[in-house]
Every structure is written in structure tokens, then in C-alpha cells.
Give the backbone structure.
Amino acid sequence: MQQPLTTMFVIFLAFTFSIFTTTTSVTTIGVTYSSSPPQSENISAAMSTLKLHSLRLDDPDPSIIRSFLYTNTTLFLSIPNYMVSPIASNRTLALAWLYAHVVPFYPRARITTISVGNAFLDSYPEYISDLIPAITNLHLSLRNDLGIRRIQISTTFSFVSAISSPFPPSSAVFQEPPGTSNNFFGSLLRFLQETNSSFLINVFPYNLYRLRSEIPLGLALFQEHAFNYRDDVLTGVRYRNLFDMMVDAVVSAMAVAGYESVPIVVAETGWPSGSTTGNEVDANVGYAEIYVRELVKHIASGEGTPLLKDGVREVYVYEMFDKEGKQGRDWGLFYPNATMKYDIDFSGTSSFTFGEYSFVSVALSLSVAVSITFL
């Protein structure tokens, strides 16, 4: 793959000279709840069983938010994709959503983040130009109308839609959505930097493993066996798991865009424990347990990724419960009846200290900037 020398030089500058001071930080692990109808009692019990204190609510119900009043559980809320375009054109709707989901509960409920849509680009690509105006309207309603300044406003992307040329990680750039200017991601990242918010990304090694047959299963499942690694020839970095490779591809894309200091949150990650399609033999309980167990071990180690020494700010496992009667893939840590599917020890991964993020300095060699062979 031919890589433009100008892009190489930007990465060289970003990773060789952009070294930020940091305080000790530990990545927080949380879990996503996206089932319906709401099951407030089951959710609280599941959080207690998992010993987790960070919950992401996809299309949140106010009754669930209310159930976490006066607790030490942080809440990450998402606005449904179908509301993004209406909010973009009418700030009153943004304020109405906040009055229903935030005002009655905050700060008694520890709401930390609101994502305006989840993988909106995948669901409504023809309306992608509405996304930044919707984020702006929600931000203005929250800050100016309500005077609430400590909740982050962002949006969530899927890895495969946001990142172009992800292998090797140092070659990655943002894939500008069709119909937008060539600086869509730059504009969004500037907003996130100015508001001290995070870049939210869904990272599913399973999906990338399915798309690229040359990726070894062991690399996707954090298995450290012979040949379960890939080298980035440009940076000299050796990768031993696909999760780190995907995160570092995002780091590289942000560096090229000029916003490498914006923190990263993995809004969804996981491995399916089953599939009704019949041709996904790797979607099984055994592999799902291995993925989540090894992910937790990797996060708890505090090693971060090769290009992001302190790691991402937060990681949310998708998801809490399997959906009753759902066709497709099962992702839950629990069956629909709230029986735990497998025993994972999440203890010690539920708290962190906010601080500036540090990128590891990587010595780059421009002598290999002509071409890269990877995977």
C-alpha cells in the first residue's frame, strides 16, 4: 500500500514530538444496556453481580436513570438515531430531551456523557450533515439554557465506517462521509477538544476478523501463541492483539487530523456468543468468554496500547442481556432471564482518575515510507 509522504511526515511529527504530561489513570470498564422493555431491578442486580460502576444506556428510559439516583454508578446516555435530524433543525427538541432524561436526575444521577446518535453514519448516511448541528444544539441547550457544564457531548462511530486504511495502524486516516466537506472529522474533533469531550468509537474485532480472512483468530482473541502477532513496519511496533491495532488506528487518524490529544472512549466492544444465521461458527459462548476475559485482563494490566500508553479512557462491553427472541447475534453477558452466561471478574476495573493522555514516543524511520506490506 502506497502511503503519501506528507501523511507519513504528519504521523512522524505527531508520534515523535507530541508527548503530553499525564497523571496516573486506569481505564474504566463498563457495560451497555440496550434491551427493552426496561428492567430496572434486573439491571441493578446485574451491575452488582458484575461489580461494575459504569453503565451505557442505549435509548435510555427515564425509569432506569431514576433507579441509579444516589449511587456511585456513572451513566453514559445515547440519543436515538431517529432523533438526530429533528434535533439538528430544532433546538427546542434538544432541550425537551434534556428535560426528560437529564434535568430530573442530574447531579443525583452521575450522568457523565451523552452521545448524539450511535453509529448514525451507518443508519442514516444521507443525513450525516445533520450530525454536527445536532451535537451543537444539544451542547448549547445543556450549557447555555440549563447551565450544566460537566457532561460531555459527543457522538459514536463504528470503526469500519470511520477509519480508512486501518492496516498497519500507522497508515490509518479518517474516511470522510460522502456528501460532506473534506473536514467533517476535523470539525468534530475541534468541537470535542474545545469542550473537553471524548471521541467515541465502537471497536469489534469480531467484525473485522470476519471481513478480513487473513486475520488469525488468535490475534482477535488476545491469544499469545506463535504467529499471533503483526508488525507495523513503519513504526516498528509489534501488535499481539487486534483490539490494540484498531485503537491505534484511531490514534493515528486523530494525529493526522491534528487532534491527537482528544481522549478516546470505546463505546462498544464484545464477541457474539451465538448467531441464528448458521454460518458463524466463531460466534459461540467459548470464544465470547475468552474475548471478554482477556479484554478485562488486558485493560486491568494498565499497559494501554503501543501508541496510547495510558489506554483509552473507558471501555463498554456490549452488552448486558441477550434480547429475547432476537434474530441475528447474541452478545449478552446474561441470558434474557438474567442468568449469568459466564463468570468474568471485573473487579478492579471500575474506577479511574481523569488526567491528560500521553502518547508514547515512537521513533519513525522515513526510509520505509515508500510502501508497507501488512497482514
Observations:
- DSSP finds 13 helices and 14 strands in the chain.
- The chain has a mean pLDDT of 86.
